[in-house]
Amino acid sequence: FGQSLIVVGVEIQLHVDHYVLKPSKAKMLKCLVVIREALARKHLPPGHAQKLAGRLRWACTHLFFRLGRAMMQPLYEQHSVPSGNIGASLHLALEWWEEVLVLDITLKRMWKQPSLPLAHLFVDASGKLGRCAAVLFLDGQRLYTDGVPSPAVMAAFNKRSDWQITTLEIMALAIGLSTFADKLRNRNVVIWSDNSGAEASTRKGSGRAWDHCRLIHDVWMLALQYGMRIWIERVPSHDNVSDCPSR
Length: 247
Hints:
Layout: E1 5-7, E2 10-14, E3 18-23, H1 25-41, H2 46-55, H3 67-70, H4 73-77, H5 88-101, E4 107-110, E5 119-126, E6 131-138, E7 141-147, H6 151-154, H7 165-179, E8 188-193, H8 196-204, H9 210-226, E9 229-234
Parallel strand pairs: 5-8, 8-9
Antiparallel strand pairs: 1-2, 2-3, 3-4, 5-6, 6-7
Helix pairs in contact: 1-5, 7-8, 7-9
């Protein structure tokens, strides 16, 4: 089907029954040079951060499981740091990118995807009770999980005055996927949430707060590890069947 193409830093190879995507090695080496120098000097000028973010945009796409989106947040925030000094969140993100960019990242997709029935995962949380729940509809089965995250887990998040409802809603999504991960391996999964903040930020792949970004990053990492193709939708609260077990 012709020579491979490099589009927005991604090499594309087309074949009869599939296509292959992989980051351009030349461009990723340029990124590694900038990242390693920044980590060594603990300094990344805003202009360099902007260029680096542009070269890594491929990792924010749905095809690459939005894995890089949460770890781009500190790079975007560095634009408003005139001194160029690296904070804790940016240091963590740069270390993650350094590990990822040396891997042989290759994504293979078939032109015709398997036609297994959709799995539907409903998630919900109660802020006052601090409780999370998820209900899965899969191949005629109805399964659920529910529980209260430990104080140690909740202490890891920023302090908020809203009973941590958005945090719990995102966590309910993560708990549902991790609980049923083996059953959802290589499946198309529609996730239904009645919390607009959790729904929008998880679909986008990042949140405004760094602690939410890290939690959302784990959701998409789990999807990659198990080959889940997830799609997140909004469901009205009175139609959310996971409302009952969350309470």
